[in-house]
């Protein structure tokens, strides 16, 4: 090969290598195909990209230094081909599979920015969180973070989306170690907790204890409604595990919906009705059962669900927005194509939602355990507006 051409290609390889190594600290997570290596973690992605970058740098230096040696340059090109194939699996395939997730994460902002969007307005704020019942060590710091948010911008209540208690152990131990201890920063600050029962509370034998325990404010009911913000908002806490073929709950829900005078109606239920087919996937049976009540003039503005361990916001479907927020603990590492109506999805990252009610709007922001706002939607009455990424 022409030595000059070899040097030019060598410089090009060096630049690619330096660029790859420079982006390593900014790799947040990597959905997709690292299953080839049997590993999924963020660290694996960083190591892989780092190795590819370093290899390109070494190969580039070889091409520059030994540009007159035919044998070395030939072997160098073989090396580039091997590294390129590794790079294809490590970079191109996961990026193509879900490039949108990675792109959207760059829109994040600082935690202190959360209320600035409507800083001049009086807001009622609510925490929405689900599926924390796994005794994760990282749950405590996330609760401390939410507690510090509350100090600056008070949170009126926590809406719990179920599976907050999931181990097969006595209720007193489960509630103490899985909920009261990790949620201490919120409990100590006097933030009331409202639980929508999950399948684990029920099947692990904690339902009766939960509905009777004052910490969850269920007052003995498996499904119930609470009104907030001087009557502006009603949240219906459904027992989604036992809703299909349970006409009493459906009848109650229909009556309560008809009676409420709240401007905003939100359902908090454990099972997700709409979304990508990850974990347990969307629950079409439950959706068709509830569908006639959710939509229409007297319907529901927002359905909040857990169960599936990731975050996903759907485009409005017949005027109702569906959000999955089951990423309170141990987020999933599975992936699958997005649902056709997915507006934003985030997997492999732990987090929670802050729902803010102001005059004429209901705003929901998705926040990671690191305090980064990754997604948001603002619902405006009488003129539904989706303002994702603002
Ligand atoms: Fe669940």
What does the secondary structure layout of this molecule look like, with pairings?
Elements: H1 3-23, H2 42-65, H3 70-105, E1 124-129, H4 139-152, E2 157-160, H5 171-180, H6 184-187, E3 193-195, H7 199-203, H8 207-212, E4 224-228, E5 233-237, H9 247-259, E6 264-269, H10 284-294, E7 302-305, E8 311-314, E9 321-325, E10 342-346, E11 351-358, E12 361-368, E13 373-380
Parallel strand pairs: 1-2, 2-3, 5-6, 6-7, 7-9
Antiparallel strand pairs: 1-11, 4-5, 8-9, 8-10, 11-12, 12-13
Helix pairs in contact: 1-2, 2-3
Bound molecules: fe (ii) ion.
The site of fe (ii) ion has 6 residues, from helix 7.
Explain what you see.
By secondary structure, the protein is an alpha/beta fold. About 35% of the residues lie in helices and about 20% in strands. It contains 10 helices and 13 strands. Helix 10 links the parallel strand 6 and strand 7. It starts with a helix and ends in a 10-residue tail after the last strand. Bound molecules: fe (ii) ion. Fe (ii) ion binds near residues 163, 200 and 270.
CATH architecture assignment of the largest domain: 4-Layer Sandwich
Instruction: Please state the structural category.
Output: alpha/beta
Helical residue percent band: 25-40%
Q: CATH homologous superfamily name of the largest domain? A: Metallo-dependent phosphatases
Quick structural overview:
With about 400 residues, the protein is α/β, with parallel strands linked by helices. The chain contains ten helices and 13 strands.
């Amino acid at each position: 090969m022409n030595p000059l051409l070899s040097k030019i290609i060598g410089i090009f390889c060096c630049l690619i290598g330096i660029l790859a190594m420079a982006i390593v600290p900014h790799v947040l997570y990597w959905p997709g195909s690292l299953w080839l290596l049997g590993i999924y973690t963020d660290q694996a992605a960083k190591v892989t990209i780092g190795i590819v970058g370093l290899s390109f740098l070494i190969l580039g230096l070889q091409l520059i230094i030994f540009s007159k040696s035919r044998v070395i340059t030939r072997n160098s090109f073989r090396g580039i081909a091997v590294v390129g194939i590794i790079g294809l699996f490590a970079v191109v395939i996961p990026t193509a599979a879900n490039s949108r997730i990675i792109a959207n994460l760059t829109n994040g902002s600082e935690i202190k920015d959360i209320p600035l969007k409507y800083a001049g307005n009086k807001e009622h704020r609510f925490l929405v969180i689900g599926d924390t019942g796994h005794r994760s060590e990282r749950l405590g710091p996330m609760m401390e973070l939410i507690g510090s948010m509350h100090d600056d911008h008070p949170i009126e209540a926590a809406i719990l989306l179920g599976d907050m208690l999931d181990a097969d152990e006595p209720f007193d131990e489960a509630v103490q170690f899985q909920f009261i201890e990790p949620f201490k920063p919120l409990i100590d600050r006097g933030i009331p907790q409202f639980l929508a029962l999950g399948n684990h509370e029920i099947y692990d034998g904690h339902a009766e204890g939960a509905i009777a325990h004052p910490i969850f404010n269920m007052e003995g009911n498996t499904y119930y409604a609470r009104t907030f913000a001087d009557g502006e908002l009603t949240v219906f806490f459904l027992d989604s595990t036992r809703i299909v073929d349970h006409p009493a709950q459906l009848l109650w829900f229909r009556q309560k919906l008809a009676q409420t005078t709240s401007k905003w109606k939100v359902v908090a239920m454990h099972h997700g009705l709409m979304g990508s087919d990850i974990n347990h996937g969307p629950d079409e049976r439950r959706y068709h059962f509830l569908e006639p009540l959710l939509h229409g003039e007297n319907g529901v503005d927002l359905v909040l669900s857990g169960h599936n361990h990731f975050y996903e916001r759907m485009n409005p479907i017949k005027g109702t927005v569906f959000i999955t927020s089951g990423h309170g603990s141990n987020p999933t590492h599975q992936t699958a194509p997005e649902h056709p109506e997915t507006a934003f999805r985030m997997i492999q990252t732990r987090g929670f939602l802050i729902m803010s009610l102001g005059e004429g709007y209901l705003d929901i922001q998705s926040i990671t355990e690191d305090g980064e706002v990754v997604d948001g939607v603002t619902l405006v009455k009488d003129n539904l507006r989706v303002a994702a990424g603002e």
